[in-house]
Amino acid sequence: MLDLYRYSGPLVRLLPPEAAHDLAIFLLKHGLVPAQPPADDSVLAIRLFGRDFPNPVGLAPGFDKNAQVPDAMLAQGFGFVEVGSVTPRPQPGNPQPRLFRLVEDRAVINRMGFNNDGLEVVAARLAARRRIGIVGGNLGKNKDTLDAAADYEKGVRALGPLTDYLVINVSSPNTPGLRALQGRAPLAELVARTRQALLELPAPPPLLLKIAPDLTEEDRRDIAEVALAGGLDGLVVTNTTIDRPGGLVSRHRAEAGGLSGAPLFEPSTRMLAEMYRLTGGKLPLVGVGGIASAADAYAKIRAGASLLQLYTAMIYQGPALVTGIKQGLAALLRQDRFASLADAVGADHRS
Ligand SMILES: Cc1cc2nc3c(=O)[nH]c(=O)nc-3n(C[C@H](O)[C@H](O)[C@H](O)COP(=O)(O)O)c2cc1C
Fold it and tell me: Whose CA is nearest to atom 9 of ligand 1?
């Protein structure tokens, strides 16, 4: 099978990053990124939240914010796709430029600011698809909303019936005040209200919380407590970082926004391991941040992730990267004599 991205990918990367992204969505939407990934190795399958994931490698939110191409991305071999973040009303996001490639650092900085089509349009797109494959919905709040929880309640009502799981995103660095919702009291209230809205649905999907890598130790303990108190079915660890680790060399390294990609791998994996420890391995964790290889994926699993997500590495390597990661991960699991992915989750905490 012709790997179109191998030929068009370098050309796509000559475009400014946001134009490249829009072109990629266009090509995917029109079936111009053909893919026939090999069937998934059975060792990669995992059952979580009452759903069967054929493999743990998911597409992180931010790529398909508006649910234009979830099925095209599932067809590329992702085990699941998360659309969003979606806010109740459509909003334009921050002025451009707001997306920067840090090529030498294998990283990206973005300050998109939740540009998206809004719940109504996204819900209509999701309603129009055949429900095959696992699609999650990532919920945000509008920039000018004062009662944040009300926005997440709206998100639950609109996307809950159309998705396999929902994520409360309070960790994007580009919406003023958003990350403050990770503090104990606001978080407890937010989770309680969102959960209440969820329970009013005929078939409530699982509810996860996506957290930032830049939290204090107190924040992390508070989040683990709120999560274990029953309000959440899992945690997504982590979003982009506002930190700028030493060693970045690209000319865009001082741009404002959230940093993703290779430099995020180490801090987000450390945080993943800590959240696994703080939650006693009782809560499924989704490991995200800087995954670019099978070794990275395996390290996140061993640190405590039951599922994985990636975005930035795909900007540099194209979607064919997913097949490579899955094959390498299956080989690593077998090499260490794990009969299933679930057996390897958190293995570093036991050895
Ligand atoms: C351009 C861009 C837009 C993003 N938008 C969102 C978003 O809307 N909601 C969200 O939860 N995360 C968003 N993210 C964060 C990713 O989902 C992911 O958590 C982060 O990029 C780390 O993974 P990576 O290093 O594999 O990219 C975005 C990331 C990028 C690069």
Answer: 85
Question: Are residues 323 and 38 in contact, defined by beta-carbon separation less than 8 angstroms?
Answer: yes
What are the residue numbers of the active site?
172
Among the atoms of ligand 1, which is closest to the Cα of residue 288? 23
Our count of domains for the chain comes to: 1
Q: Whose CA is nearest to atom 29 of ligand 1?
A: 62
Whether residue 349 is contained in a domain is answered as no
Residue 334 CA, ligand 1 centroid: distance in Å? 30
Report CA(110)–ligand 1 centroid distance (Å): 8
Pocket around ligand 1 at a 6 A CB cut-off: 60-62, 65, 84-85, 99, 108, 110, 112, 138, 169, 172, 210, 239-240, 260-261, 264, 288-291, 310-313
Cα 135 to averaged position of ligand 1 atoms, centre (Å) = 16
DSSP letter at 103? G
On whether the CB atoms of residues 176 and 140 are closer than 8 A, the answer is no
CB 214 within 8 A of CB 241: yes
Q: What is the pLDDT along the chain (351 residues), one digit of tens a residue?
A: 345 555 566 677 789 999 989 999 999 999 898 888 899 999 999 999 999 999 999 999 999 999 999 999 999 999 999 999 999 999 999 999 999 999 999 999 999 999 999 999 999 999 999 999 999 999 999 999 999 999 999 999 999 999 999 999 988 888 877 787 767 788 889 999 999 999 999 999 999 999 999 989 999 999 999 999 988 999 999 999 999 998 999 999 999 999 999 999 999 999 999 999 999 999 999 999 999 999 999 999 999 999 999 999 999 998 999 999 999 999 999 999 999 999 999 999 997
Q: How many CB atoms lie within 10 A of CB 248?
A: 18
Residue 302 CA, distance from chain mean position: 18
Asked if residue 155 is part of any domain, the answer here is: yes
DSSP 94-105: SPSP-EEEEGGG
| Distance from residue 45's CA to the centre of ligand 1 (Å) | 24
User: At 80, which CATH number?
Assistant: 3.20.20.70
